[in-house]
């Protein structure tokens, strides 16, 4: 897999009359969804990780510093977060539909937070849980890939909403992290429980009200079988399918009918524009008050982007996977 | 399948101090969901179709006349609709959770309407479409099993909401009915279009916004593949699975995520209590104004319940399947 990537050196051309902003990227977000984009043709062979910017390159969320700007909206020295690229420098052309958010440097959060807990990962967890799943106090919440960048936040947010939360992950260390550090009520290693339906029955004797699905496949089937009436499933990812290792879910639609289950696909950018200010305020407070733990997994240097990306699919990473640039 | 049923003669015991109401059933509702109840053990072997009432018997929606009442809520001569049974007479014990609705005989609708278009079939179509799918004018709506008791109403209701509506069914006569009598914009015979994905692409070049699913299986997969962003799927039935003839759907959850599709199971009784008055008023007006066509398919006599039920699974019935009792 790492051999599928190529890091290229290319020249960036910024000019004062281009309307463009030149951003020196500081942290790159490494997310599983890039794998789909590759499979679906949104990222094509030939799009490369560049030491400087020149399309075609792999677009991704990142945080950086403006080093030159031909746009009145941004000035040199601004810290920004947005859809930039897997590269050292990005040329960004602002438009009504393409904006970077300015990072509040006075908030004294590490810069990296702005592409994780305060960026798309956090927004996906927050919007998906609160807008789609609408947790009520006392409800039972199940989170898969719970030690991942989004799952870990979903579980913590659900605890703050007064829910009973169980997560699953693929190693003992991750399971311990969920229980000991992230405050999950319980957690289990799905690799040691091949009968997922029975496992969920044990962890949820009274059924599941909300399932935040990051994996799809058999886990989705097992969760549906254990859901309560009016259960809600937020479908965030299908990592079991990304690499072809797992098979697709064959959900029992009779369960969906009889239990009037809602299954809904979620996407951070649905919530970002209208709820970002609310989200940012709430999560910032939670972090400051120590109510949300931030777990990051940082690799160094552009050269390590391919290895960092591969880690997402081999169960090695814990929390938000980032690459810190020089 | 007919041989799986047994019609038994049994004695009904009603007494004036029982609190019970004795109802002479006039029309019985024949619905595919009974098949699930049998498969799931909600209807067990030994539960019979009775010429008089004695549990265990097969419970179903029906309309009838009160012939004796030991309840202050009902009087002899009242026409009622509710969850009664596949039998000539039902002993009904009213409680806060078990009620029959009194049928408005002055409305001059045929009695049978109260278990079809003005009963659970109508409520399923109305609640499922308007409460779950929320159609907007101009949206594209696909209905499967569109010549069935619910599908035919969903399509007509969606047309009244200003949508573009295409239905599918399994015979040319049904397809003609959808187009010529029920006002669907288009319709097709799915048996003549083995590549359902391509068929839906042809009928919906701009994609599907709402899919009202009565069949599940490959049709659900094909609909999801053709859905637009923010598409909604109301899951009402999975008739392709009931008899084991079709295979279960293997939906592409990546489609669900990327298109933020909502899939929701529906059930008439979720809408019945709170929206029945609104529903009844709206549908009554639509029928009187000729805006909704009522298609019924009536068999005669309790002895024909088994054959009527089997028709649902062999593609023979059109519209609401009923049995009229003597």
Automatic annotation (TrEMBL), chains A, B:
Residues 8-323 form the Enoyl reductase (ER) domain. The keyword Transit peptide does not apply. Pfam families: ADH_N_2, ADH_zinc_N. The keyword Oxidoreductase applies. Keywords: Oxidoreductase. InterPro entries: ADH-like_C (IPR013149), ADH_N_2 (IPR041694), ER (IPR020843), GroES-like_sf (IPR011032), MDR_fam (IPR045010), NAD(P)-bd_dom_sf (IPR036291). GO terms for molecular function: oxidoreductase activity, acting on the CH-CH group of donors, NAD or NADP as acceptor. Coiled coil: none annotated. Homodimer. This is Enoyl reductase (ER) domain-containing protein.
């Amino acid at each position: 897999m790492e051999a599928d990537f190529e890091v290229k050196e290319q020249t960036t051309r910024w000019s004062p009359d281009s309307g463009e902003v030149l951003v020196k990227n500081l942290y790159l977000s490494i997310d599983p969804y890039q794998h789909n984009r590759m499979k679906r043709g949104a990222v094509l062979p030939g799009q490369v990780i560049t030491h400087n910017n020149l399309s075609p390159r792999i677009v991704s969320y990142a945080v950086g510093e403006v080093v030159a700007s031909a746009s009145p909206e941004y000035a040199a020295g601004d810290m920004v977060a947005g859809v930039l690229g897997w590269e050292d420098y990005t040329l960004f052309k602002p438009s009504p539909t393409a904006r970077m958010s300015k990072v509040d440097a006075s908030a004294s959060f590490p810069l990296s937070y702005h592409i994780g807990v305060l960026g798309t990962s956090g927004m996906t967890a927050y919007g998906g849980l609160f807008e789609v799943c609408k947790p009520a106090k006392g409800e039972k919440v199940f989170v898969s890939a719970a030690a991942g960048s989004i799952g870990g936040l979903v579980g913590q947010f659900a605890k703050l909403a007064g829910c009973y939360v169980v997560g699953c992950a693929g190693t003992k260390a991750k399971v311990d992290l969920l229980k000991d550090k992230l405050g999950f009520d319980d957690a289990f290693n799905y690799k040691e429980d091949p009968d997922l339906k029975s496992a969920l029955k044990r962890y949820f004797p009274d059924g599941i009200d909300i399932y935040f699905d990051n994996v799809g496949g058999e886990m989705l089937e097992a969760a549906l079988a254990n859901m309560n009436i009016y259960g809600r499933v937020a479908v965030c990812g299908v990592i079991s399918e990304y690499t072809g290792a797992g098979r697709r879910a064959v959900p029992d639609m009779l369960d969906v009918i009889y239990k009037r289950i809602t299954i809904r696909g979620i996407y951070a950018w649905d919530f970002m524009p209208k709820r970002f200010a609310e989200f940012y305020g709430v999560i910032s407070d939670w972090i400051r008050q120590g109510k949300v733990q931030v777990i990051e997994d940082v690799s160094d240097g552009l050269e390590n982007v391919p290895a960092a990306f591969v880690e997402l699919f081999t169960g090695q990473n814990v929390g938000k996977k980032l690459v810190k640039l020089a």
